[in-house]
Amino acid sequence: MGFFDKVKSIKNFITGGAAKVYLDSSEIVFGEQFELRIRVQVDDADLKIDRVYVEIEGIEEIEVPDVDVIYEYDDEEERRLEIVRAETTTTELEITVDDGQVLNANEKYEWTVNIELPSDALPPYNGQYCQHSYMARASLDCFGNDPDSGWIELDIN
Predict the structure, then answer these.
(1) Which is it for the CA torsion 112, 147, 108, 45, positive or negative?
(2) DSSP H helix total and E strand total for the chain
């Protein structure tokens, strides 16, 4: 391994830049099984992975405007109108799509996985102050920073 190969290896270790990972889905109907497709374009060096995996999270967010908030500083009260925000994770799934292998440099790979949300999963909704949505991320488990697709909101009907 030459000097520049070592530099590339270190860069990929730190940034997760050893491959580009893409995630897309079939049409999703809440309560029914759906398919996610993971596509990977490996950079210019072979990549040893321990697994390909997908994470799915249900996220409930609330945002209430014009909340009267009281602050105390040095025994004096100050009132302000603020936007109050909160978020909670309602569902967490991690699914192994494929086992460890070596992905060859400059090659493209593709996997599909069928997903079924748990029976107690909340449906997606979008209210005046509150919303519930699902996010997904595909990743390659490897030494260093895992290359991933980034979090993508799932369009669920």
Answers:
(1) negative
(2) 1, 8
Contact 59, 132 (CB under 8 A): yes
Contacts of 23 (CB under 8 A, 6+ apart): 36, 37, 38, 39, 54, 136, 137, 138, 149, 152
Task: Label residue 16 left, alpha or beta by phi (over 0 means left) and psi (-120 to 50 means alpha).
Answer: left
The amino acid at 114? N
Helix (H) / strand (E) element for 43: namely: none
Q: Which of 11, 140, 141 is nearest to 149 (CA)?
A: 140
Residue pair 71/49 in contact by the 8 Å Cβ criterion = no
Q: How confident is the model at residue 12 (pLDDT cuts 50, 70, 90)?
A: very low
CA distances from 99 to 1, 38, 47, 63 (A): 27, 14, 13, 41
Domains and CATH numbers, the chain: 18-153 (2.60.40.640)
Q: pLDDT tens digits for 46-97?
A: 999 999 999 999 999 999 998 888 888 888 888 889 899 999 999 999 999 9
- Measure the CA dihedral 32/33/39/45, to 10°: 140
